Description:
Number of strands: 7
Helix content: 55-70%
CATH class of the domain at 34-131: Mainly Beta
Number of helices: 8
Amino acid sequence: MKIKTEYKIGIIGLISILVLYFGIMFLKGQDLFNVETSYYAVFDDVSGLYKSNYIYLNGMKVGYIKDIKSIDPKASKFVVWIAVNSDIKIPKDSKIMIFSSDLLGSKALKINMGISNDVFNKRDTIQSAKETGMIDQLADNITPIVVRLNSVMTNIDTLIVGVNNVLDKKSQQDIKASLENIKQLTQNIENISIKVDGLMDKEKTKIDKIMTNVESITNNFEQNNDKLTNAINNFSNISDTIAKANLGKTIKETNESLTSLTKVMRSIEKGEGNAGLLLKDDKLYKNLESSTKKLDALIEDIKQNPKRYLKVSVF
C-alpha cells in the first residue's frame, strides 16, 4: 500500500513541529522527561531575572523560571512562576532567593531548604528573599565613594580656577623663581654636605685621638671617683670650719688689738710706764737683760724637757 504524498508531507510537518517545540523547550532549560511542579514567589524587585533563568538547590539546577508578571499597574510587586522537579519536596519554612550566579552579576533563583515536615503543594506561594552578592555589596560600597570623589573633584576644579584667577603671570613667574632658588639651595646644601663629609674623613684621625683622650679622662675620673669625693668632702669640712671660726669677729678684734698696740708704742716713746722707763733708764735695761738671760735659760730648758711644761692632747 502506497502512502499518498499529502500524508507524507503532513507526517514530516508534524514531526518537524514536534522537534521544533521540544528543541525550544530544551533550549529554555526545561527537562522534557521529568514531571514538573509549579510554584509562585512574589518579589519587590526582579532586576536581572528573566524567563528560563535557572533555579538552583545547593548548587544544582532543579528548575527554571516559567514567567514573570507584575501584580499591580505601578509594578511595585512581581509574581514569578517557577517550575521545579516533582521529585523535590520543598518544606513550608523554605525560602526562594534572588542571587548573583556569577561574577558578572547575572541573576538566578535558589532555594534555601527549611526543616519543616510540611511541604508546599502545587501552585503554592513560597516566601521570597533577596541575597546581596559580592558585586552588589561592592556596588553599594563604591556608590558613596564615587559621590564623594565627584564632590572632591568639583572642589578641586573650583580651587584651581580660584588659584588661576589670583595668581597673575607675575605671581606665577615669582613662584617659578622661588622654586628655582629652592632647587639651587638644595644643591648647595648637598655640596656642603659632601665637603663636610670629606673634611670629616680627613680629620677622622684627629677626632679619634680626641675621643680617645676624652675617654681616658673619663676613665680617670671614674677610677678616682672615691678620691675626688673625699677631697670634696674635706673642702666642705674646711669651709664649715672657716664659717664656724667667725672670721669677721677675729679681724675686728685684731684691729682693736693693733689700735691698743699703737697707743702702747706711743706711751713707750714718751717714757711712760715700765716700757718707757726701760728705754730711758739703764737700770731697767740691765735688769731686763738679766731677766732675758734667765728667760733664755728657761726656754732652753723647755726645749730640752718639753714634757715638764707642755701637755699635748690629741683629738
